[in-house]
Amino acid sequence: MTLDPTYPLFPIFAFIGFIISLVPLPWHLQAWNSGTCFFMAWTSLACLNQFVNSIVWSGNVTNHSPIWCEISIRIIMGASVGIPASSMCIVRRLHAIARAQKVAVTRGEKRREVIVDSLICVLFPLLYVALQIVVQGHRFDIFEDIGCYPSIHNTWLAYVLSFSPPLIIGLVSATYCALTLYEFNRRRIQFNAFLNAGTSLTARRYLRLMALATTEMLLTTPLGCFIIYLNATTTPVESYNWVDTHFDYWRVDYYYRILWQMHKMLVVSLELTRWMAPFSALVFFAFFGFAEEARKNYKAFFAPITKLVRRFFPASPTAPAAKAPLSPAPTERSFQPLKSAATTATILPLHSVTETVVSTESFNKTLYGFEHDPNYVIDIKAPAPAYDLQDALSPTSTERTLHSDITFSTNHTSRRFTM
Fold it and tell me: Does the keyword Transmembrane helix feature in the UniProt annotation (predicted)?
């Protein structure tokens, strides 16, 4: 049984971070945003690693899987520089665009950009992980409710090989951020032109990437400074010696929660380190998970699922609407002539689905008498002047030139003509 009062809060957030970090990956791959893709990959991998550790070692310090711990501590060490390095690649590209330099347009240029970002975000973290064997005191540690954790011997060389690289990357990113903001304000017109000149960036995406890189820098740089301060003040810094550092290397140290909770600074260090990955994932999704391109891809992703659901669970058919009864055909009426108008009217009786066309193109007829017929509904719309229906259709009004829109309507349809 775990003594962590917040359990299972961290595993939930770690798993959510693992999922949401990968959601925007497909369209960023299509846009050749290599720095952003590496950021998502490292963040998702770190969240998955912390999720497994927090579940397996909840309430215990048993060495369930030494092989997993060997892999887990290297993921922790790699992510500690992989996430800041990815952020640096993002802001480095933004700085090049802000300076209105030549951006990668052709496939070959984009491939070169991906190679450079891969060297920074993949090769450098792998080299960093390999060098940790120089300062690694023993195999690994297991903290109750935390899981596997790397053990670094506190020597002066550890500050060079282990503690300083994340801080240095954060400072380089901070420099790029400052230069990017300066160039952005100085070359605003050229900047807008470059965003529309064959790049996959828009102004909104550019600002979101800038905000993401700045937020990540504000997380990793203070954390790196705090870890250096913690190691330098809580334990004595020893001189480096390979034999002393690797004495009894294959041992595993175990720390129950009731013991490591007694050291407040250690608690802060452990919690900040493991919460950094889920928090980075949430920040990334907040910037890119609700963007316009994200919503479009969500619709494209769920469209086949919705189609499949509708195929297996079709909507219930609705009952057909009842048809109106047919009424007898209307009888023709005689009309008196109307002057200055040759019109064609389509007239439908009420509750009828048939129609009779009365045309005055071949003979003149008057509409007098329709206003008294209960089988018809007549609507007259006249712009100006407005005439009364009886007045408009009376024989005495035939000397006037009428320009009225008359609509004959039924319950099913309507027809309009102009006189």
Answer: yes
